Amino acid sequence: MMVSLKREREAEVDDDDSEDGVVAKIGRGRVAEDRRSRHCPYLDTINRSVLDFDFEKLCSISLSHINVYACLICGKYFQGRGLKSHAYTHSVQFTHHVFLNLHTLKFYCLPDNYEIIDSSLEDITYVLKPTFTKQHIAGLDKQGKLYRAYDGTTYLPGIVGLNNIKANDYANVVLQAFSNVPPLRNYFLEEENYRGIRRPPGDIMFLLVQRFGELMRKLWNPRNFKAHVSPHEMLQAVVLCSKKNFQITKQGDAVDFMTWFLNALHGALGGTKKKPSIITKAFQGSMRIFSKKLPHPDLPPEEKEALLVTEEYQEQMSESTFLFLTLDLPTAPLYKDEKEQLIIPQVPLFNILGKFTGSTEKEYKTYKENFLKRFQLTKLPPYLIFCIKRFTKNNFFVEKNPTIVNFPITELASGMKCRTCR
């Protein structure tokens, strides 16, 4: 450990000392630019097709994240640019001369060690760190223009594929869905919205906000080199902040991940039960929950009637908030049709939304007690998330309900208000 720290410090010193090769001091306070900076002969060796800035910014040799440079010829990451650094050695060994500092976004020529200043390299820095103006963000929903990536493929910003590294598809669907919610998208596309949020020392949860913002800007980047994005850094933040409850190499449940992700983002953005955040402003609604305790089914009828009169078994009403609604499907038919095929039923969305009208009761069993509950929505959020429960688990296997839900394209909002918020 001491050796690695010593090497990192040496790399920092080498990197600082090497700045003398970039500029020459003339007199007091005057700095002259190296003439080679604007006439680098190696710019034509840059290979944009191998550049990929979606992965963690670590040196490929020392695994250090300090003073990391990207080789623009082979795409690998190396530490430092001093005489003893890995980037310097790589430039001499493989005659790769153009490097980009992944933190300062400055270009350098090695081993000559001078800064490269050229406007033709601006597209590379934009792919590494996309930026959006307020005018650009305001016009995102007004245009459906297709863009062409450097590799020749066409894509629509925001509708970009996320790489499935191993078993992270359950997280990809959630991230892609949230990237197309306009208030959430507009908030994270502009880094100034959350940069000033102060968190306690040692708090790692804000890393989730930073990585989600970076991923959002990459998904909506109109100048990508490729028509897909790897959520590698975002998922590493998820693994770290969730204490490995959600992993890249292990399949997870999308609803569980979405629940944790929404609450984690809300807390990291400084939100509480009383203090709102962009998460609660977009997704939080409210409902009334009517709950009535049921007597034990094995009790004699006389005891049941006596208990139902007591205050403990009367209906209780409570107010609650929600970020999404879980919808139950009707049970699938057991019998086959005349062609010996299972019937796949269809149900309108409004039918399964009847759970939240306040008139439909359902029994909920716990380990000790049973309750009869009904729900009534009192406030709809601007963006409503439905989770249709298709999978049920028994002692032997997980069963999927194949029922088709007919989702109306128009007049959904008015139908929801009429049926649930009466």
From TrEMBL:
Catalytic reaction list: Thiol-dependent hydrolysis of ester, thioester, amide, peptide and isopeptide bonds formed by the C-terminal Gly of ubiquitin (a 76-residue protein attached to proteins as an intracellular targeting signal)
Coiled coil (UniProt feature): none
Predominant place of localization: nucleus
EC annotation from Swiss-Prot or TrEMBL: 3.4.19.12
Subcellular location: Nucleus
Record organism: Scophthalmus maximus
CDD domains in the record: Peptidase_C19M
Family matches, as SUPFAM superfamilies: Cysteine proteinases (SSF54001), RING/U-box (SSF57850)
Name the UniProt record assigns to this protein: Ubiquitin carboxyl-terminal hydrolase 39
Domain annotation UBP-type: ranges: 38-135
Pfam families: UCH, zf-UBP
Residues of the USP domain: 160-422
Swiss-Prot/TrEMBL GO biological process terms: cell division; protein deubiquitination; spliceosomal complex assembly
